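Retro notes (design track)

What went well: tokenization of the new backbones is finally stable.
What didn't: we kept losing track of which sequence belonged to which structure.
Fix going forward: every design gets posted as structure first, then sequence, in one message. First example under the new rule, 305 residues:
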């Protein structure tokens, strides 16, 4: 069954843009660290390395997920994007460990910050670039139903919040000349990054484990099956409705009970109508309907008519 509703070329271009933006932001943040020597700014720069690696992984898995179904993968390659999101979560945690190490060393030998104003300006410019791109990724990831883009966007938003905290902290250090605050701020950044990584991993594992659709989407599916007399007219009930998510795709399957005397042609027409109704409610849906005679009715599930 052919899937429609999303252009893979668009997703790949956005993923490639994430790599380019990530490299630019990385260069700006490391320049800020080189100028100031601030461990807090170094922590921000280290996280940007993860952004670049994760963006590359997202592009790779998006290309894999775009491959059509084959003999070895009859249900397609849609879940590949979740592996990118899980990898990103793991890399975020690795970055946090590196930051904590640098913070520990700096706590043992704290020192002041050099040239804070140029460094903060560079970091601020990088943060603005990240914020703009994060907004685009979150919006487009949702619209295009791409777990990889959405995870990358959520991570960048966490990075933006982290960067704003780092900038505020560096300003305080520069004004008070309390050098020990710099590694303390970096440690706080690391803990925030760990939380961000955990959320990315948690959301992605749900997709890998064939998690069902959300309650609001399920309600729309049920309404499309049983709430439209014109589409399901002639059927008796639908039961054993099951759903799962795999990347951008939503798999929907259920049993449709029809009168035993109904012809195969008429039952097929009902299924066609229901499939159109479901696709109108759920983009990129793969639908399987098992037709049964009325002797299989359970008087449960979704009653029709």
């Amino acid at each position: 069954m052919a899937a429609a509703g999303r252009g893979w070329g668009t997703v790949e271009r956005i993923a490639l843009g994430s790599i380019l933006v990530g490299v630019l932001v990385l260069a700006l943040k490391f320049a800020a660290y080189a100028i100031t020597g601030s461990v807090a700014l170094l922590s921000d720069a280290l996280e940007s390395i993860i952004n670049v690696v994760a963006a590359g992984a997202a592009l790779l898995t998006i290309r894999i997920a775009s491959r059509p179904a084959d003999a070895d993968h009859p249900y397609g390659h849609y879940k590949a994007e979740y592996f990118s999101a899980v990898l990103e979560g793991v890399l975020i945690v690795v970055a946090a460990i590196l930051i904590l190490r640098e913070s520990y060393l700096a706590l043992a030998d704290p020192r002041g910050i050099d040239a804070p104003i140029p460094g903060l300006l560079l970091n601020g410019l990088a943060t603005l670039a990240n914020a703009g791109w994060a907004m685009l990724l979150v919006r487009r990831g949702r619209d295009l139903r791409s777990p990889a883009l959405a995870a990358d966007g959520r991570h960048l938003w966490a990075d933006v919040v982290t960067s704003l905290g780092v900038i505020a902290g560096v300003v305080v250090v520069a004004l008070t000349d309390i050098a020990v605050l710099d590694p303390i701020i970096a440690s706080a950044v690391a803990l925030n990054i760990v939380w961000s990584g955990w959320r990315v991993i948690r959301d992605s594992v749900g997709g890998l484990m064939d998690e069902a659709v959300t309650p609001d989407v399920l309600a729309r599916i049920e309404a499309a099956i049983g709430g439209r007399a014109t589409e399901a007219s002639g059927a008796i009930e639908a039961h054993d409705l099951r759903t799962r998510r795999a990347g951008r795709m939503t798999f929907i399957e259920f049993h449709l009970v029809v009168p035993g005397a109904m012809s195969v042609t008429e039952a097929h027409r009902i299924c066609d109508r229901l499939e159109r109704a479901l696709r109108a409610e759920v983009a990129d849906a793969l639908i399987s309907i098992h037709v049964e005679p009325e002797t299989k009715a359970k008087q449960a599930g979704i009653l029709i008519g």
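Added context from the reviewer: Residues 1-7 have pLDDT under 50 and may be disordered.
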